Amino acid sequence: MTKTSNDDDLALAFDECIARGDAVEPRDWMPEGYRATLVRQISQHAHSEIIGMQPEAEWISRAPSLHRKAILIAKVQDEAGHGSYLYSAAETLGVARDDLFEMLLTGKQKYSTIFNYPMLSWADVGVMGWLGDGAAIVNQVPLSRCSYGPYARAMVRVCKEESFHQRQGFDLIQAMMAGTDEQKQMVQDAVDRWWWPCLMLFGPSDRHSSHSKQSMAWGIKRFSNDELRRRFVDQAVPQIEHFGLTVPDPELRWDESAGCYKFGEIDWEDFKSVMQDGGPLGKERIAHRQRVHDEGAWVREAAEAYARKQDERLSA
Ligand code: BYC
Description:
With about 325 residues, this protein is mainly alpha-helical.
Protein backbone atom coordinates (compact mmCIF):
# COMPACT_ATOMS: atom_id res chain seq x y z
CA MET A 1 0.00 0.00 0.00
CA THR A 2 1.34 3.48 -0.81
CA LYS A 3 1.70 5.99 2.00
CA THR A 4 -0.44 9.16 1.71
CA SER A 5 0.01 12.56 3.30
CA ASN A 6 -3.09 11.77 5.35
CA ASP A 7 -1.21 8.78 6.86
CA ASP A 8 1.64 11.12 7.78
CA ASP A 9 -0.80 13.54 9.45
CA LEU A 10 -2.35 10.71 11.46
CA ALA A 11 1.05 9.39 12.51
CA LEU A 12 2.11 12.89 13.54
CA ALA A 13 -1.09 13.39 15.56
CA PHE A 14 -0.48 10.05 17.29
CA ASP A 15 3.14 10.96 18.13
CA GLU A 16 2.01 14.32 19.51
CA CYS A 17 -0.66 12.65 21.63
CA ILE A 18 1.98 10.30 23.14
CA ALA A 19 4.41 13.21 23.69
CA ARG A 20 1.71 15.24 25.52
CA GLY A 21 0.93 12.23 27.71
CA ASP A 22 -2.71 12.16 26.54
CA ALA A 23 -4.60 8.88 26.40
CA VAL A 24 -5.04 7.05 23.12
CA GLU A 25 -8.64 5.82 22.82
CA PRO A 26 -10.05 2.86 20.80
CA ARG A 27 -11.34 4.95 17.89
CA ASP A 28 -8.15 7.00 17.53
CA TRP A 29 -5.74 6.16 14.74
CA MET A 30 -2.76 4.15 15.99
CA PRO A 31 0.20 2.44 14.31
CA GLU A 32 -0.35 -1.28 13.70
CA GLY A 33 2.72 -2.09 15.83
CA TYR A 34 1.22 -0.17 18.78
CA ARG A 35 -2.06 -2.05 18.43
CA ALA A 36 -0.29 -5.44 18.12
CA THR A 37 1.93 -4.73 21.15
CA LEU A 38 -1.08 -3.85 23.26
CA VAL A 39 -3.04 -6.92 22.14
CA ARG A 40 -0.02 -9.09 23.00
CA GLN A 41 0.62 -7.55 26.40
CA ILE A 42 -2.99 -7.09 27.54
CA SER A 43 -4.09 -10.57 26.48
CA GLN A 44 -1.05 -12.22 28.10
CA HIS A 45 -1.80 -10.22 31.21
CA ALA A 46 -5.44 -11.41 31.12
CA HIS A 47 -4.33 -15.03 30.65
CA SER A 48 -2.04 -14.67 33.69
CA GLU A 49 -4.95 -13.49 35.81
CA ILE A 50 -7.17 -16.44 34.97
CA ILE A 51 -4.43 -19.08 35.05
CA GLY A 52 -3.36 -17.53 38.36
CA MET A 53 -6.72 -18.57 39.85
CA GLN A 54 -5.70 -22.23 39.71
CA PRO A 55 -2.90 -22.56 42.29
CA GLU A 56 -4.82 -20.55 44.89
CA ALA A 57 -8.19 -22.19 44.20
CA GLU A 58 -6.53 -25.52 45.05
CA TRP A 59 -6.15 -24.23 48.62
CA ILE A 60 -9.74 -23.06 49.19
CA SER A 61 -10.88 -26.43 50.56
CA ARG A 62 -7.76 -26.64 52.75
CA ALA A 63 -7.86 -23.12 54.26
CA PRO A 64 -7.34 -23.43 58.04
CA SER A 65 -10.42 -21.40 59.10
CA LEU A 66 -13.72 -20.07 57.75
CA HIS A 67 -12.25 -16.56 57.89
CA ARG A 68 -9.21 -17.50 55.73
CA LYS A 69 -11.44 -19.48 53.36
CA ALA A 70 -13.75 -16.48 52.80
CA ILE A 71 -10.74 -14.24 52.09
CA LEU A 72 -9.22 -16.72 49.64
CA ILE A 73 -12.51 -17.21 47.78
CA ALA A 74 -12.80 -13.43 47.41
CA LYS A 75 -9.23 -13.20 46.11
CA VAL A 76 -9.71 -15.94 43.52
CA GLN A 77 -12.95 -14.28 42.36
CA ASP A 78 -11.10 -10.97 42.04
CA GLU A 79 -8.59 -12.63 39.68
CA ALA A 80 -11.47 -13.75 37.43
CA GLY A 81 -12.68 -10.15 37.43
CA HIS A 82 -9.21 -8.88 36.49
CA GLY A 83 -9.13 -11.31 33.57
CA SER A 84 -12.53 -10.05 32.52
CA TYR A 85 -11.59 -6.33 32.57
CA LEU A 86 -8.39 -7.09 30.67
CA TYR A 87 -10.06 -9.22 27.97
CA SER A 88 -12.58 -6.36 27.56
CA ALA A 89 -9.71 -3.87 27.19
CA ALA A 90 -8.11 -6.14 24.54
CA GLU A 91 -11.44 -6.37 22.67
CA THR A 92 -11.46 -2.59 22.23
CA LEU A 93 -8.45 -3.15 19.92
CA GLY A 94 -10.54 -5.23 17.52
CA VAL A 95 -9.70 -8.76 18.64
CA ALA A 96 -12.23 -11.42 19.63
CA ARG A 97 -12.11 -12.94 23.11
CA ASP A 98 -12.59 -16.45 21.66
CA ASP A 99 -9.47 -16.02 19.52
CA LEU A 100 -7.48 -14.96 22.58
CA PHE A 101 -8.69 -18.03 24.53
CA GLU A 102 -7.67 -20.15 21.55
CA MET A 103 -4.17 -18.65 21.59
CA LEU A 104 -3.82 -19.38 25.30
CA LEU A 105 -5.03 -22.95 24.95
CA THR A 106 -2.82 -23.71 21.96
CA GLY A 107 0.26 -22.15 23.59
CA LYS A 108 0.55 -19.35 21.00
CA GLN A 109 0.35 -16.76 23.76
CA LYS A 110 2.11 -16.86 27.10
CA TYR A 111 1.08 -16.24 30.68
CA SER A 112 3.29 -15.44 33.67
CA THR A 113 5.78 -18.22 34.49
CA ILE A 114 5.12 -17.72 38.22
CA PHE A 115 1.95 -19.81 37.97
CA ASN A 116 3.81 -22.87 36.72
CA TYR A 117 5.39 -23.61 40.09
CA PRO A 118 3.54 -25.72 42.70
CA MET A 119 2.02 -24.28 45.88
CA LEU A 120 3.14 -26.84 48.41
CA SER A 121 1.92 -25.50 51.76
CA TRP A 122 -0.47 -22.99 53.31
CA ALA A 123 2.49 -20.64 53.78
CA ASP A 124 2.76 -20.52 49.96
CA VAL A 125 -0.69 -18.91 49.85
CA GLY A 126 0.56 -16.16 52.16
CA VAL A 127 3.86 -15.67 50.34
CA MET A 128 2.13 -15.60 46.96
CA GLY A 129 -0.09 -12.76 48.25
CA TRP A 130 2.58 -10.88 50.18
CA LEU A 131 5.49 -11.15 47.72
CA GLY A 132 3.78 -12.32 44.51
CA ASP A 133 1.05 -9.68 44.57
CA GLY A 134 3.60 -7.24 45.98
CA ALA A 135 5.70 -7.77 42.84
CA ALA A 136 2.61 -7.59 40.63
CA ILE A 137 1.70 -4.20 42.18
CA VAL A 138 5.17 -2.75 41.52
CA ASN A 139 4.89 -3.95 37.91
CA GLN A 140 1.30 -2.85 37.38
CA VAL A 141 0.89 0.52 39.13
CA PRO A 142 2.84 2.27 36.32
CA LEU A 143 0.54 0.57 33.81
CA SER A 144 -2.33 2.63 35.20
CA ARG A 145 -0.52 5.52 33.45
CA CYS A 146 -0.15 3.54 30.23
CA SER A 147 -0.86 5.55 27.08
CA TYR A 148 -3.80 3.34 26.04
CA GLY A 149 -6.90 4.56 27.92
CA PRO A 150 -8.87 1.29 28.36
CA TYR A 151 -5.79 -0.59 29.67
CA ALA A 152 -4.83 2.24 32.02
CA ARG A 153 -8.38 2.46 33.43
CA ALA A 154 -8.59 -1.31 33.92
CA MET A 155 -5.30 -1.18 35.80
CA VAL A 156 -6.55 1.41 38.31
CA ARG A 157 -9.15 -1.03 39.59
CA VAL A 158 -6.90 -4.08 39.30
CA CYS A 159 -4.21 -2.38 41.41
CA LYS A 160 -6.68 -1.42 44.15
CA GLU A 161 -7.73 -5.06 44.42
CA GLU A 162 -4.12 -6.30 44.23
CA SER A 163 -3.36 -4.11 47.25
CA PHE A 164 -6.00 -6.00 49.22
CA HIS A 165 -4.44 -9.28 48.02
CA GLN A 166 -1.00 -8.17 49.13
CA ARG A 167 -2.35 -7.09 52.50
CA GLN A 168 -4.10 -10.44 53.08
CA GLY A 169 -0.84 -12.25 52.28
CA PHE A 170 1.08 -10.07 54.73
CA ASP A 171 -1.58 -10.66 57.40
CA LEU A 172 -1.47 -14.43 56.85
CA ILE A 173 2.33 -14.46 57.14
CA GLN A 174 2.18 -12.26 60.24
CA ALA A 175 -0.14 -14.82 61.87
CA MET A 176 2.13 -17.73 60.95
CA MET A 177 5.25 -15.90 62.17
CA ALA A 178 3.56 -15.47 65.56
CA GLY A 179 3.01 -19.24 65.66
CA THR A 180 5.13 -22.35 66.23
CA ASP A 181 8.69 -22.98 65.02
CA GLU A 182 7.24 -25.38 62.47
CA GLN A 183 5.00 -22.64 61.05
CA LYS A 184 7.93 -20.21 60.88
CA GLN A 185 9.93 -22.86 59.03
CA MET A 186 7.06 -23.31 56.55
CA VAL A 187 7.17 -19.58 55.81
CA GLN A 188 10.95 -19.59 55.31
CA ASP A 189 10.63 -22.58 52.99
CA ALA A 190 7.94 -20.75 50.97
CA VAL A 191 10.10 -17.59 50.74
CA ASP A 192 13.02 -19.74 49.55
CA ARG A 193 10.94 -21.28 46.78
CA TRP A 194 9.04 -18.13 45.64
CA TRP A 195 11.72 -15.44 45.81
CA TRP A 196 13.27 -16.11 42.41
CA PRO A 197 9.97 -16.72 40.54
CA CYS A 198 8.82 -13.33 41.95
CA LEU A 199 11.91 -11.63 40.48
CA MET A 200 11.26 -13.38 37.14
CA LEU A 201 7.75 -11.87 37.06
CA PHE A 202 9.36 -8.61 35.86
CA GLY A 203 10.53 -10.28 32.64
CA PRO A 204 13.97 -10.71 31.07
CA SER A 205 16.81 -8.33 31.88
CA ASP A 206 16.79 -5.04 29.96
CA ARG A 207 19.56 -6.36 27.69
CA HIS A 208 17.37 -9.26 26.62
CA SER A 209 13.93 -7.62 26.67
CA SER A 210 12.88 -7.51 23.01
CA HIS A 211 9.85 -5.25 23.45
CA SER A 212 10.78 -2.81 26.23
CA LYS A 213 12.45 -0.06 24.20
CA GLN A 214 9.56 0.40 21.77
CA SER A 215 6.91 -0.12 24.47
CA MET A 216 8.52 2.62 26.56
CA ALA A 217 8.74 4.97 23.58
CA TRP A 218 4.99 4.46 23.07
CA GLY A 219 4.24 5.02 26.77
CA ILE A 220 2.85 1.49 27.18
CA LYS A 221 5.53 0.60 29.70
CA ARG A 222 6.73 3.46 31.90
CA PHE A 223 9.79 1.74 33.38
CA SER A 224 12.13 -1.01 32.27
CA ASN A 225 11.96 -4.58 33.61
CA ASP A 226 15.20 -4.18 35.62
CA GLU A 227 14.15 -0.85 37.12
CA LEU A 228 10.88 -2.31 38.44
CA ARG A 229 12.60 -5.48 39.66
CA ARG A 230 15.07 -3.33 41.60
CA ARG A 231 12.21 -1.33 43.18
CA PHE A 232 10.54 -4.55 44.28
CA VAL A 233 13.72 -5.86 45.91
CA ASP A 234 14.15 -2.54 47.76
CA GLN A 235 10.60 -2.82 49.11
CA ALA A 236 10.53 -6.53 49.86
CA VAL A 237 13.88 -7.10 51.61
CA PRO A 238 13.16 -4.88 54.67
CA GLN A 239 9.78 -6.61 55.09
CA ILE A 240 11.37 -10.05 54.91
CA GLU A 241 13.99 -8.99 57.47
CA HIS A 242 11.28 -7.47 59.70
CA PHE A 243 9.84 -10.98 60.09
CA GLY A 244 13.28 -12.42 60.90
CA LEU A 245 13.27 -14.34 57.61
CA THR A 246 16.12 -14.54 55.12
CA VAL A 247 16.32 -14.01 51.36
CA PRO A 248 17.72 -17.04 49.47
CA ASP A 249 20.42 -14.99 47.76
CA PRO A 250 23.98 -15.10 49.14
CA GLU A 251 24.93 -12.09 47.00
CA LEU A 252 22.23 -9.80 48.37
CA ARG A 253 23.67 -6.74 50.11
CA TRP A 254 22.80 -3.10 50.71
CA ASP A 255 24.88 -0.86 48.46
CA GLU A 256 25.36 2.38 50.39
CA SER A 257 26.73 4.37 47.46
CA ALA A 258 23.96 3.31 45.06
CA GLY A 259 21.25 3.61 47.75
CA CYS A 260 19.70 0.27 46.80
CA TYR A 261 20.17 -3.48 47.21
CA LYS A 262 22.50 -5.38 44.94
CA PHE A 263 21.29 -8.89 44.24
CA GLY A 264 22.49 -12.06 42.55
CA GLU A 265 21.85 -13.16 39.00
CA ILE A 266 18.52 -14.79 38.20
CA ASP A 267 18.71 -18.31 36.76
CA TRP A 268 17.72 -17.18 33.26
CA GLU A 269 17.97 -20.71 31.89
CA ASP A 270 15.26 -21.79 34.34
CA PHE A 271 13.16 -18.74 33.36
CA LYS A 272 13.51 -19.53 29.65
CA SER A 273 12.76 -23.20 30.07
CA VAL A 274 9.61 -22.53 32.17
CA MET A 275 8.53 -19.89 29.62
CA GLN A 276 9.06 -22.18 26.65
CA ASP A 277 8.13 -25.62 28.02
CA GLY A 278 5.74 -24.69 30.83
CA GLY A 279 7.95 -25.93 33.69
CA PRO A 280 6.64 -28.30 36.34
CA LEU A 281 2.94 -27.50 35.86
CA GLY A 282 2.40 -25.85 32.45
CA LYS A 283 0.63 -28.81 30.82
CA GLU A 284 -1.60 -29.33 33.85
CA ARG A 285 -2.57 -25.63 33.97
CA ILE A 286 -3.58 -25.59 30.29
CA ALA A 287 -5.41 -28.95 30.51
CA HIS A 288 -7.40 -27.62 33.47
CA ARG A 289 -8.16 -24.38 31.64
CA GLN A 290 -9.33 -26.37 28.58
CA ARG A 291 -11.60 -28.51 30.79
CA VAL A 292 -13.30 -25.56 32.50
CA HIS A 293 -13.56 -23.75 29.15
CA ASP A 294 -15.43 -26.75 27.70
CA GLU A 295 -17.60 -27.13 30.79
CA GLY A 296 -18.50 -23.44 30.60
CA ALA A 297 -19.74 -23.67 26.99
CA TRP A 298 -23.39 -23.76 28.11
CA VAL A 299 -22.92 -20.51 30.10
CA ARG A 300 -21.55 -18.71 27.03
CA GLU A 301 -24.39 -20.10 24.88
CA ALA A 302 -27.01 -19.03 27.46
CA ALA A 303 -25.51 -15.52 27.67
CA GLU A 304 -25.54 -15.20 23.87
CA ALA A 305 -29.16 -16.44 23.67
CA TYR A 306 -30.16 -13.91 26.34
CA ALA A 307 -28.36 -11.08 24.51
CA ARG A 308 -30.09 -12.07 21.23
CA LYS A 309 -33.49 -12.00 22.95
CA GLN A 310 -32.75 -8.59 24.42
CA ASP A 311 -31.77 -7.29 20.94
CA GLU A 312 -35.00 -8.69 19.45
CA ARG A 313 -37.04 -7.06 22.21
CA LEU A 314 -35.33 -3.70 21.67
CA SER A 315 -35.76 -3.78 17.89
CA ALA A 316 -39.43 -4.95 18.07
N1 BYC B 1 6.41 -14.94 32.25
O1 BYC B 1 10.43 -8.08 25.81
P1 BYC B 1 9.85 -8.51 27.10
C1 BYC B 1 -0.04 -11.23 38.62
C2 BYC B 1 7.79 -12.83 27.79
S1 BYC B 1 0.94 -11.68 37.28
C3 BYC B 1 6.16 -15.37 30.97
O2 BYC B 1 10.43 -7.91 28.34
P2 BYC B 1 7.36 -7.11 27.57
C4 BYC B 1 0.24 -11.90 39.88
C5 BYC B 1 7.11 -11.66 27.09
O3 BYC B 1 5.70 -11.85 27.08
C6 BYC B 1 0.27 -10.87 35.93
N2 BYC B 1 6.56 -14.69 29.88
O4 BYC B 1 8.26 -8.32 27.05
C7 BYC B 1 1.40 -12.60 40.08
C8 BYC B 1 7.77 -11.72 25.75
O5 BYC B 1 7.22 -12.81 25.00
P3 BYC B 1 6.41 -12.57 23.60
C9 BYC B 1 1.33 -10.76 34.92
C10 BYC B 1 7.25 -13.56 30.09
O6 BYC B 1 5.97 -7.45 27.24
C11 BYC B 1 1.64 -13.23 41.28
C12 BYC B 1 9.18 -12.13 26.07
O7 BYC B 1 9.14 -12.76 27.33
N3 BYC B 1 1.65 -9.36 34.76
O8 BYC B 1 -0.91 -10.46 38.47
O9 BYC B 1 7.89 -5.81 27.12
C13 BYC B 1 0.72 -13.16 42.30
C14 BYC B 1 10.15 -10.97 26.09
O10 BYC B 1 9.91 -10.11 27.22
C15 BYC B 1 7.54 -13.07 31.37
C16 BYC B 1 1.52 -8.76 33.58
O11 BYC B 1 1.17 -9.38 32.61
C17 BYC B 1 7.09 -13.81 32.47
N4 BYC B 1 7.34 -13.43 33.73
O12 BYC B 1 7.56 -7.16 29.18
C18 BYC B 1 -0.45 -12.50 42.08
C19 BYC B 1 1.79 -7.27 33.56
N5 BYC B 1 8.24 -11.92 31.24
O13 BYC B 1 5.18 -11.80 23.97
C20 BYC B 1 -0.71 -11.83 40.88
C21 BYC B 1 1.74 -6.70 32.19
C22 BYC B 1 8.40 -11.70 29.93
O14 BYC B 1 7.33 -11.81 22.71
N6 BYC B 1 2.86 -7.10 31.41
N7 BYC B 1 7.79 -12.68 29.24
O15 BYC B 1 6.07 -13.95 23.12
C23 BYC B 1 4.09 -6.53 31.48
O16 BYC B 1 4.36 -5.65 32.30
C24 BYC B 1 5.10 -6.97 30.48
O17 BYC B 1 4.45 -7.69 29.46
C25 BYC B 1 6.24 -7.84 31.08
C26 BYC B 1 7.15 -8.28 29.91
C27 BYC B 1 7.06 -7.03 32.05
C28 BYC B 1 5.68 -9.09 31.78
